[in-house]
Design a protein that fits this description.
The complex is a heterodimer of chains A (about 300) and B (about 450). Chain A is α/β, with parallel strands linked by helices. Chain A has nine helices and eight strands. Chain A folds into two domains: about 210 residues, NAD(P)-binding Rossmann-like Domain (Rossmann fold); about 70 residues, Arc Repressor Mutant, subunit A (Orthogonal Bundle), CATH 1.10.10.520. Chain A has an eight-stranded mixed β-sheet with strand order 3-2-1-4-5-6-7-8, with helices on both faces. The two termini of chain A are about 40 Å apart. The model of chain A has no long low-confidence stretch (mean pLDDT about 90). Chain B has 16 helices and ten strands. Classes of the chains: A alpha/beta (about 300), B alpha/beta (about 450). The interface between A and B is large, with 76 and 76 residues.
């Protein structure tokens, strides 16, 4: 039997977040909080099933919470299942706020936000002299690939310990290439954003959501591509936006797999079936060629700047 | 008007449509296949609801759910099931024992272990089928089809550049030979040109006595670097140094995955996609016997980015694209007598991906699957899990507490099923070959063949 007092904080109400929230509700978790600082866009609707077309523009956290609360579900101990939304930046939560949760599940797309929450939770373990420990289950998805990491702050590998396993950050091109020898449409866009935009619009940040700015980028891209004889057929608005926003592909099925994996780990933690020493805390998934998953024990990094025990 | 043609550009949704994030995975042609694929799910349960949700979201428009009267499942009040436009019907043995009933579906997904369903469907000729079961921490999924499953776009993540430096087509060798040759311009050469040159020099020097190897090539690249400048390293030459192995490829080698496909070129097939693909395979055989091909597969035309001047790189890229276009047009002239009006975009797609085509061999039919269950002494744990789930006489009904505990396993299996479904419908990426077992306790996924 699971303790009806459990409460779970979900980070992100996007593709993974919607799946995580749905699973937790159907897992009978009475107290759920969700934080997300984004609003709903049309392109979310191919996977973020807690939202509908007329929710576009509204905060994701609010709409997701509303959807679940409107179902009037009952969870552990006969308690009503309630989701509390937080439409804000998760790094602004206080430690006292974080300390109320049994565990945290993250479905974020930002590495920095994960690092921030990871170090906060590790600190809570240390400052409570290991009396309080809030596990963090972290999911990530990209196309047909994804990962799930279970972090027991202060007891097993933390998010920071695994940073070295991440693929190199978004590809950036040497400035001399993009300035003098552009060969790819990406080089053209990179130059326009990093050099020409500032020259043409001093003091103004580039905002892809602004029609006129985006139009500027489109027409200048085509012009520059032509000047350097670069094949411009790839330079469609979607392609350009993809480069600008560094958009990764995302589908419902991968999110379902990864979110379920995260919630399954949460189940094991809540039902005391998780072995901190021996359970495989990391899982990577790839569905591009067959169905591949590899799970393993990621050891703590003795030199980790975050979870190295204070002496 | 098709949903795909709606671009709200330049409105606030900015050149976007609902499916933008998945179009980046399988393109508009893949999306058309997703939307056109009729899928039927047999068995009504939390698992089938999750599967239907995962298929409705990416845009599968024609979904059918066949429920069984014996099932006690009540749709979770969580879902707006009614808004999903699912065709619902009851299992009807008389109607469903004819293959005619099933042939309209691109894919059937069986989620129930019901004995009547099993006994009837194992005697019917079925379209491609996914069969899945789940119990507590475990689940399995099997791909069943009387025909092979072919894939043109496997989207291999790490593709070796297709440069053909050992046996370049005439257009390519004349391009490489006509580059400006003074040492100073070496710094502007893309690494492919550097490798071509290094290879040529190495062969001249050795008079083909010893086989080429990386060290010899790298030696010549260093000599070029010395000619250019004794200090420092030109970035294009470092790339050439790093990619020296690309000059050692054997362009006449036919990869195993292609040979596996070719073996099946005359296997009787009825699925339209397979008939088309087999025509492409037959044309490929003819193509390979032409002197033009030199025993090489069609050139893909795509080359990686290379440190170099824009001008030379663009010219090189154009040359590869022209060579690929020539190969594709010769290939096209071979397929048209076999299949008149064969769509041009498919010919080009096939030629571009000819080195990466794949075939998966599903379990032949449902009977084969059930016949597999006799006890074997050397079964691995996943096979044991598979057998026990397959033998489970009834679909699991759990009390509330256990439903809560194991819900994520159902959700995960529904994700796997939907992922395989989209791969099967689009013929992009490679489906499981042919059975997978998920163990939610140990977090293991095992794939094996039946």
């Amino acid at each position: 039997m699971c303790d009806p007092e459990v409460s779970i904080l979900v980070l992100g109400a996007g593709g993974l977040g919607c799946e995580i929230l749905k699973n937790l509700a159907l897992q009978g978790i009475p107290t759920i909080h969700v934080v997300d600082m984004d609003t709903i866009e049309l392109t979310n609707l191919n996977r973020q099933f807690l939202f509908r077309e007329n929710d576009i523009g509204k905060p994701k956290a609010d709409v997701a919470a509303q959807y679940i609360n409107d179902r009037h579900l009952t969870g552990f101990g006969g308690r009503p299942i309630r989701v509390t939304p937080h439409f804000q930046d998760l790094t602004l939560f206080s430690d006292t706020f974080l300390e109320q949760f049994t565990l945290v599940i993250s479905g974020l797309d930002s590495i920095e936000a994960r690092r921030a929450i990871n170090s906060r939770l590790v600190r809570i373990t240390f400052e409570s002299k290991f009396q309080k420990c809030i596990p963090l289950v972290d999911g990530g998805s990209d196309g047909f690939k994804g990962h799930c990491k279970v972090i027991i702050p202060g007891f097993a590998a933390c998010y920071e310990c695994s940073l070295a396993t991440l693929p190199a950050e978004t590809e950036s091109y040497p400035l001399c290439t993009v300035a003098n020898n552009p060969r790819l449409p990406e080089h053209v866009i990179e130059y326009l954003l990093s050099v020409q935009w500032a020259e043409a619009h001093p003091g103004q940040d580039f905002d892809y959501a602004d029609g006129a700015s985006f139009q500027w980028l489109m027409s200048n891209s085509l012009e520059r591509a032509e000047r350097f004889n670069i094949d411009a057929s790839k330079l469609t608005p979607q392609f350009v936006l993809g480069v600008v926003k560094n958009i990764v592909p995302s589908v419902a099925s991968t999110n379902a797999i990864i979110a379920a994996q995260c919630c399954n780990e949460a189940s094991k933690l809540l039902y005391n079936e998780y072995d901190v020493e021996r359970s495989k805390n990391f899982l990577v998934y790839n569905g591009e060629d067959g169905c591949f998953a590899h799970s393993f024990v990621h050891e703590r990094l003795p030199t980790c700047l975050v979870c190295q025990e204070p002496s | 008007m098709s949903r795909l043609s709606i671009y709200n550009f330049p409105s606030k949704h900015l050149a976007m449509n609902r499916f933008d994030r998945q179009l980046r995975l399988w393109g508009t042609h893949g999306q058309q296949r997703v939307e056109a694929g009729r899928v039927c799910v047999v068995g009504s349960s939390a698992l089938s609801t999750e599967i239907l949700k995962n298929l409705m979201l990416p845009g599968v428009r024609d979904l059918t759910l066949i429920g069984l009267k014996s099932e006690s499942y009540i749709q979770d009040q969580f879902w707006d099931f009614a808004s999903w436009n699912i065709v619902q019907m009851d299992w009807d043995a008389n109607r469903m024992k004819c293959s005619k009933f099933w042939e309209c579906y691109a894919l059937v997904i069986i989620t129930t272990g019901n004995a009547e369903v099993r006994d009837i469907l194992r005697r019917v000729r079925m379209p491609p089928t996914l069969l899945c079961r789940v119990s507590k921490f475990h689940g399995f999924l099997t791909f069943v089809s009387s025909e092979p499953h072919f894939v043109i776009e496997a989207h291999r993540q790490h593709q070796t550049a297709d440069l053909r430096l050992d046996r370049p087509r005439d257009q390519l060798s004349s391009f490489y030979c006509n580059l400006p040759r003074d040492p100073l311009s070496f710094s502007e050469w893309p690494f492919a040109a550097v490798l071509y040159q290094a290879r040529k020099l190495a062969l001249q020097e050795k008079a083909s006595l010893k086989p080429l190897n990386r060290e010899v090539l790298r030696h010549h690249i260093s000599l070029m670097q010395d000619e250019l400048s004794k200090n420092g390293q030109s970035p294009n030459l470092s790339e050439a140094y790093r990619f020296a192995y690309l000059a050692l490829q054997n362009s006449q080698h036919i990869p195993e995955n292609v040979r596996e496909c070719l073996l099946l070129k005359d296997k009787p097939c009825t699925l339209p996609y397979n008939q088309n693909f087999q025509n492409l395979l037959r044309a490929l055989c003819k193509y390979m016997s032409l002197p033009h091909s030199d025993g090489q597969l069609p050139v893909s035309g795509a080359i990686p980015d290379m440190e170099s001047s824009s001008k030379i790189y663009n010219a090189l890229r154009r040359t590869y694209m022209e060579v690929a276009a020539t190969d594709a047009s010769i290939f096209g002239s071979l397929i048209l007598p076999i299949a008149p009006q064969f769509p041009l975009d498919q010919i080009n797609l096939f030629c571009k991906n000819s080195r990466h085509i794949r075939v998966v061999s599903p379990v032949k039919n449902i009977s084969t699957l059930y016949d597999f269950q006799g006890p074997k002494s050397n079964d691995t744990p996943p096979v044991l899990v598979f057998r026990s789930l397959l033998d489970m006489p009834n679909d699991e009904t759990l009390d509330k507490e256990h439903r809560w505990k194991y819900y994520p396993v159902i959700s995960a299996m529904a994700g796997f099923v939907a992922q395989e479904t989209t791969k099967i419908l689009t013929h992009q990426f490679v489906p499981i070959d042919n059975t997978m077992v998920y163990n939610g306790m140990s977090n293991e996924v095992s794939v094996f063949r039946i």
